[in-house]
């Protein structure tokens, strides 16, 4: 029933997103526009619909990758935007913009490099990878990557630097069907994460018990971590690093799923989070073209505060 509520919420936000903008459309006008893509519905089909779909794809990716990293590391703070995966992916994407190379491939390279660096930095000679060390080393990695990105932007021309700065704030402005085609490149990577619910459930029991249940713990952690990094990097390449989406989607999805790690709920939550933020961006200032990432930060920051308070109490 809770999943159904989440689906209904996402559909309601999608309808609201198609209606919102400089010109608000009534439900009847929206239905008429959707049925007339070459006439009255041109604005919907060319601007609002691709913007909605890009936001939902990116949000689903951020939500899924956030839940997987948080579960693998057994830490609600260990989302890709906290442990540096998002920032290094963004650095890779900016390198791609600077060199004229494919942005998606460069973002993927950044995401994989971040996971490799974290595995090396947080490795303990006897205890393996220490999850708390991953978060702390990830914070340092995120700061280092952000500094590198700023240094690179300073070497760009004015117009390219302005575009890069806007993109880094997390924006859906200008999103079109070409971005959806880019999103379809990493959409197949969502499938293994969506099917990983039972594995994540068992990994939460601890490595020893998971091994006793027949899981190849090391292989599964490495494989799921790499796929989650690719999904997070692909989402970054679509619309920039949307702050707090990956961090907030996991805990909310657990509430929906009764405390269990549910990839399906995390995917829906991430998509709904970005869609809600984009509706707010256009409703609050329809002519200002404010970045959607500004509103994901405004919504997600309280979730971070509540998460830290909950960890402190426990």
TrEMBL record:
<keyword id="KW-1133">Transmembrane helix</keyword>
<keyword id="KW-0472">Membrane</keyword>
<feature type="transmembrane region" description="Helical">
    <location>
        <begin position="289"/>
        <end position="308"/>
    </location>
</feature>
<feature type="transmembrane region" description="Helical">
    <location>
        <begin position="134"/>
        <end position="154"/>
    </location>
</feature>
<dbReference type="Pfam" id="PF01032">
    <property type="entry name" value="FecCD"/>
</dbReference>
<keyword id="KW-0813">Transport</keyword>
<dbReference type="InterPro" id="IPR000522">
    <property type="entry name" value="ABC_transptr_permease_BtuC"/>
</dbReference>
<keyword id="KW-1003">Cell membrane</keyword>
<feature type="transmembrane region" description="Helical">
    <location>
        <begin position="264"/>
        <end position="283"/>
    </location>
</feature>
<comment type="similarity">
    <text>Belongs to the binding-protein-dependent transport system permease family. FecCD subfamily.</text>
</comment>
<feature type="transmembrane region" description="Helical">
    <location>
        <begin position="90"/>
        <end position="122"/>
    </location>
</feature>
<feature type="transmembrane region" description="Helical">
    <location>
        <begin position="220"/>
        <end position="252"/>
    </location>
</feature>
<dbReference type="InterPro" id="IPR037294">
    <property type="entry name" value="ABC_BtuC-like"/>
</dbReference>
<protein>
    <submittedName>
        <fullName>Iron ABC transporter permease</fullName>
    </submittedName>
</protein>
<keyword id="KW-0812">Transmembrane</keyword>
<feature type="transmembrane region" description="Helical">
    <location>
        <begin position="49"/>
        <end position="69"/>
    </location>
</feature>
């Amino acid at each position: 029933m809770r999943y159904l509520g989440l689906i209904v919420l996402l559909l309601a936000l999608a309808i609201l997103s198609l209606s919102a903008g400089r010109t608000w459309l009534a439900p009847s006008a929206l239905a008429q526009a959707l049925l007339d893509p070459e006439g009255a519905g041109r604005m919907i089909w060319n601007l609002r619909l691709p913007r909605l779909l890009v936001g939902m794809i990116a949000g689903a990716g951020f939500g899924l990758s956030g839940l997987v990293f948080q579960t693998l590391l057994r830490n609600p703070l260990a989302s890709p935007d906290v442990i540096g995966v998002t920032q290094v992916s963004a650095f890779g994407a900016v390198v791609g913009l600077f060199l004229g190379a494919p942005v998606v491939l460069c973002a993927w390279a950044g995401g994989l490099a971040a996971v490799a660096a974290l595995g090396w930095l947080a490795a303990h000679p006897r205890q393996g990878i220490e999850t708390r060390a991953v978060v702390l080393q990830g914070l340092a990695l995120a700061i280092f990557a952000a500094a590198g990105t700023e240094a690179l932007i300073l070497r760009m021309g004015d117009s390219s630097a302005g575009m890069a700065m806007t993109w880094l704030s997390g924006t859906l402005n200008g999103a079109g069907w070409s971005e959806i085609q880019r999103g379809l490149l990493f959409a197949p990577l969502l499938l293994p994460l969506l099917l990983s619910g039972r594995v994540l459930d068992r990994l939460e029991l601890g490595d020893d018990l998971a091994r006793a249940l027949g899981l190849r713990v090391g292989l599964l952690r490495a494989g799921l971590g790499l796929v989650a990094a690719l999904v997070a990097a692909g989402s970054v390449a679509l619309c920039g690093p949307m702050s707090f989406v990956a961090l907030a989607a996991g805990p909310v999805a657990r509430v929906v799923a009764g405390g269990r790690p549910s990839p399906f709920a995390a995917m829906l939550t991430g998509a709904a989070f970005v869609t809600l933020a984009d509706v707010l961006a256009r409703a609050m200032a329809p002519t200002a073209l404010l970045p959607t990432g500004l509103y994901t930060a405004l919504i997600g920051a309280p979730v971070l505060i509540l998460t830290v308070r909950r960890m402190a109490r426990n």
